[in-house]
Structure formats: structure tokens, C-alpha cells
Amino acid sequence: MADWLIAILMGIVEGLTEFIPVSSTGHLLLLGHFLGFESTGKTFEIVIQLGALLAIISLYFKKLWHLATRWPFDPEARRFIIGLLVAFLPAVVIGFAAYGFIKQVLFETPAVVCVALIIGGFLLLWLDRMKKMPTYLDADKYPIRIYFLIGLFQCLAMIPGVSRSGATIAGGLLLGTDKRSAAEFSFFLALPTMGAAVAYDLFKNRANLNFDDMGLIVIGFVSAFIAGLAVVKLLLDFVSRRGFAPFAWWRIVVGVAGLIGLALTGGL
């Protein structure tokens, strides 16, 4: 397959999967493995994530601008920003401490991705069928304790295949949030988490970065941005109506298919 087609495909996969509970990292690692695609220093895979991040900023620009300009004298805006930072903090600590193990071991073991996809799929099915009346309906007004605990759940996504959005949404549901607000908070939590992860990854890999294939990076970035826009626009209404079962079954199918592919190619 031509490199530019791979760039478009991986960009679309990044944008489509970043904000739904199926693990964008897991999908990219498996796709890259089976297509034999890996950029020098992971530059391509790192930078295209910014396309998905830009999608969130574009769609929520009005609210983000409100938060940025009103927090000094608006208690509600200030409280939500504090909640985001509290939720983000565990990922900073654990991500920094375990960075080497995550990148050098977990990211290099496709079977881990497949198993995590399958286990996460069954957990999502269980959560989707759980009969529990939500206590918290507004992501702006969760108690600080809930923000922190959701942040702890997010750390599970450092295992590739778990899914950052899936971990935060599942954590929210277990803690008493409704599906829509849990998904929306996951969008906002992606901003500091993904931004910091990309910046730290670029810094750690600065000696190996290779921007010679800038054309492919731009193609992947734009593809991720467009796909991310579509997903974020549609996801909240879809989740409110249909729940997470379709994503759960997708995870299971991809995980099983991945294990079969690895077995057939000697990757297990």
C-alpha cells in the first residue's frame, strides 16, 4: 500500500477512535504492525494525535474561551478548571514514573493490545447493562472527589488497548455519572492529558525525530482532525441513545481478529 494511503488511513483511524472507548493507541499499534508501518522516532504516530486534539478545541472553543477568560472571577469556571487539573494529576505522576516500561514493553507487545481490547469490551458490555440511577448529570459540577477518581481510572489507559476515553467513561459510570456527561468530561480531560503526553513524547524522542516525511505527517494530521470532528459531533447523542454496546462488540471483534492475525504470522 502506498505511504500516502497508509497516512490517510492511520489519520482517519486516530480521529475516529481517539474519543470513543475502543483505544486509538491500540488500533494504531495493531494497524501499523500489520501494515509494516513505523515512522522514525514515532514522529508520525505522535504528531497526528494533535489533529484529534484540534478537533476538540474547535468544537468546544466557545466554552474553552469562556473558561480561559472568566476563571479569575467566575467560581463555577474556576471550579471546573480545578476539577480538570485534579483529574489530570494522576496521569502526570504515573505516566512520568512508568514511561519507560509503557513505551519499551507494553507498546512493543501487540498481544497485550488485543487482550486489553477484549477484556475492555466485556467490561463495557457489563457497564452498559448495569441498572444504576446516575447521581451526577453535569460534568461541570462533579464533586472534586469524583474528578480525582476519574483521573485514577484514566491511568488504566496507559496499557495500550484499554482506551483513555473508555477508562474515564467507565470510571464515571461506576462513580454515579450519566453516560452523556461522562463522555463530555472525557473530551475535556483529553486536552491536558493528550497535550502533555504528546509534548513529553516529542521531548523524549527529540534526538530521533525525523520530519523528512512532513507530507505524510500533514496528511495524517488533517485526516485525524476531520475524523475527530465527525466523531465528537455525533458521539454524545449516539451514546445517549444507544449506549456503549456497539463499541464493546467492536473491541472484542478487533481483539480476537488481532490475536488470530498474530498467531498466523508468528507474532504470539
Automatic annotation (TrEMBL):
It is an enzyme of class 3 (hydrolase). The keyword Cell wall biogenesis/degradation applies. Bacitracin is thought to be involved in the inhibition of peptidoglycan synthesis by sequestering undecaprenyl diphosphate, thereby reducing the pool of lipid carrier available. Keywords: Antibiotic resistance, Cell membrane, Cell shape, Cell wall biogenesis/degradation, Hydrolase, Membrane, Peptidoglycan synthesis, Transmembrane, Transmembrane helix. The keyword Membrane applies. It catalyses: di-trans,octa-cis-undecaprenyl diphosphate + H2O = di-trans,octa-cis-undecaprenyl phosphate + phosphate + H(+). The chain crosses the membrane at residues 6-31, 43-61, 81-102, 109-127, 147-175, 182-203, 215-236, 248-267. It is a multi-pass membrane protein. Its EC number is 3.6.1.27. This is Undecaprenyl-diphosphatase. It comes from Brevundimonas terrae. It comes from the Bacteria. It is found in: Cell membrane. Catalyzes the dephosphorylation of undecaprenyl diphosphate (UPP). Confers resistance to bacitracin. The gene is uppP. Belongs to the UppP family. InterPro entries: UppP.
